[in-house]
Amino acid sequence: MTANTLHTTKRVTPALLSLLLFGAAPLALAASFPDRIAFAERSATIGLGIDSLALLQRLPGQGAEKTASLLLDRLRGRSPGVFTSERFQREVNAERTSFVSDEGWYLNVYADGTSARYRNYGYLEKMAPLDRPVEERIPAEELEKLGRAFIADYLGDQIRLGRGEELVPYFTEVEVTGGAGAYDGAPMDPELVHSSTVVFTRSINGQPVLGGGSKVAVIFANDGEAVGFDYDWPSYGVSKRVQRILPLDQIRQRGNDYASFKSDDPDVQVRHFECGYVDLGARKRDPAALVQGGCLQQAARKTIVDPALNAKDDKSGYLLSANIDYLPAGEEVQPDAMWEQSLRRVKVKE
Question: Of residues 107 and 178, which shows the higher confidence score?
Answer without folding.
Answer: 107
